[in-house]
Amino acid sequence: MNPVTADRRHFEDLAMGEVIPFGKVTVTKDMIIEFAREFDPFPFHLDEEAAKKSLLGGLASSGWQTAALSLRMLGDAFLNNVASMGGLGFSDLKWKKPVMKGDTITGSATISGLRRSKSHPERGIVTLDFDIRNQRDEPVMSIRLANLVALRDPTAPITGEPAE
Amino acid sequence: MNPVTADRRHFEDLAMGEVIPFGKVTVTKDMIIEFAREFDPFPFHLDEEAAKKSLLGGLASSGWQTAALSLRMLGDAFLNNVASMGGLGFSDLKWKKPVMKGDTITGSATISGLRRSKSHPERGIVTLDFDIRNQRDEPVMSIRLANLVALRDPTAPITGEPAE
């Protein structure tokens, strides 16, 4: 059960520019309403009639649901096979188009950074740029995520510019 | 049901520096596991024994759950009484400490930006800086959110530096 196991991909196994294609998920009315009730209870995420009158013009998923579903797609496509030690944070999330009832989202993540930690030589930091799209190949969300990944060999010398 | 109704606070009613105190929520084992199963199925969010061996040292909430719960606290304390037209995105999310089973999170948001939209004079953009803390008053997460808010009077001249 320990995620940091030898058969998972470690920091040394990752390459700059690697593109990770995601699976896909169709966002149903029930999913939209269930998520919104718990976290983002706005009329345009809860009620079809109110949603029609809103800026979005119909029942739309919470943008935070799109983010959470994107995380899940990253897990299925990548992180579940990586010696991940947890997330550090993310930056520059942009919602570009609403995700409406019945839309199917997919996308990819590209490895845009690989740095060793100076203070913790057993840890590396991978930066992932997400490009999430709908079934018409229109971008709906982008985000940059930073995640800790264990090194297979923490004694290897640090090359490149390390993180703190 | 339309969120943009006269009795809600509009863009003109918001003030730079306003601090919005949040309510609080206790993160239970069941909440952690339910969220993680759907969005972030890592052993350290799903299994107490595996979690003890991880970097986090025990069952910890997904950081994305902390973000979603913070959004909910913002809704209850602020957005549900504001003529919000939806979120634009956020930046600089940082997870500072893990949120463990049984922790209670609370915090506040501070209005750090108020800009009119140049292309859509009926819209304003409010920037909110979140400071989320646990029951020991330790910071656990920060994030900056940008949200659209309707103007009460879109014909008012734009002062200050507008957004695009």
Commentary on this structure:
The structure is a homodimer of 164-residue chains. With 164 residues, chain A is an alpha+beta fold. Chain A is built from four helices and six strands; from the N terminus they run ββααααββββ. In chain A, strands 1, 2, 3, 4, 5 and 6 form a six-stranded antiparallel β-sheet that branches. Chain A is elongated, with a radius of gyration of 18 Å. The model of chain A has no long low-confidence stretch (mean pLDDT 91). Chains A and B meet through helix 3, helix 4 and strand 3 of A and helix 3, helix 4 and strand 3 of B.
Order of helices and strands of chain A: EEHHHHEEEE
User: Based on helices, strands and strand pairing, what is the structural class of chain A?
Assistant: alpha+beta
Specify Rg of chain A, calculated over alpha carbons.
Answer: 18 Å
How many distinct helices of chain A? 4
Q: What is the residue-mean pLDDT of chain A, rounded to a whole number?
A: 91
Global morphology of chain A: elongated
**Multimeric status of the protein:** homodimer
What fraction of residues of chain A sit in β-strands? Answer: 25-35%
Q: Can you count the beta strands of chain A?
A: 6
Distance between the termini of chain A: 29 Å
Runs of chain A with pLDDT <50, length 5+? Answer: none
What percentage of residues of chain A falls in helices of 4 or more residues?
10-25%
Describe the largest sheet of chain A. 6 strands, antiparallel
Determine the most extensive contact between two protein chains.
Answer: A-B, 42 and 41 residues
